[in-house]
Write the structure tokens for this entry.
Amino acid sequence: MRTISKNIVFLIIFLGFSLLPAAEVPYLTGRVTDTAEILSEATRRSLATILKAHEDRTGNQIAVLTIPTIGGEDIEEYAVEVFNTWELGQENRDNGVLIVVVPNDRRMRIEVGYGLEATLTDALAGRIIRSVMTPKFKNGDYDAGLAEGVKAVVAVLEGGELAEVESGSGGSEESSGLDMDMPAMGITERILLGAFIFGIIGLFTIVGVLTPGAGWFLYLFLIPFWAVFPIIVVGTTGALTCLITFIIGFPVVKLVLKNKDWYKKAGQDLRTKGKASIGGFSFSSGGSGGSWSSGSSGFSGGGGSSGGGGASGSW
């Protein structure tokens, strides 16, 4: 009953978040729309001047929006909605850029129009966010973060090198050497990619834990995978946590299972019969140290190959 009650509570919380009203698109009041009121008047005027001068030189339209919160809405979807509602950029060039900062949610995004994607790429926009804006925002300095972020965007669009902007940004944080030029992902992308990555290495981890003897080979084999792949989803700190959990948890669980009767029987079967069945999976020992399969139909391919023929469809 207690488990059921917890599930009901989680369901209510989930439904509550899903029913939250979507964040509204503010009225476009100028090149800088500071609805969160995090910028000083001097910064707003300075940014407007910089953006107008850039538009006069290039025709590109850059707008800045600050909004206190967007609730549970994905910032990428919200930025696209604002961008299209405001119709940034020229119709025949799609040369608009929108910088969105959501201070209460601690999120930001640089949304780029189709016509400028080849110049202000996802990787460059990500570097501006991480290297130029984020260090200032962490210190609560929104004025400097947005000012330097806008200058970096303008510099890239006008043919400058981002490295020059980063070196002059005054950021005190040093690169860890693991900072990869990859676009920032929303929560949806992280969930989907995380399910793929953790599903694969998690499956092999379970197989390694359940396989008597040969499972230690998988333990050593999976260490680099747990060290690298989680970085894409949870960052370097989260990946280090995953790695430590795997390194400690795997042998602990195997040592606990070692005293279980069914585990002992499986080990004995592998030694005497060359195969064992655990939880619906069939494990067999061989020259390579061990293998596994599910089911017992005995079906396997005959060694054929395909040249890519076939058909696809949709509805």
Summary: Confidence is low (pLDDT under 50) at residues 11-21, 170-183, 286-315.
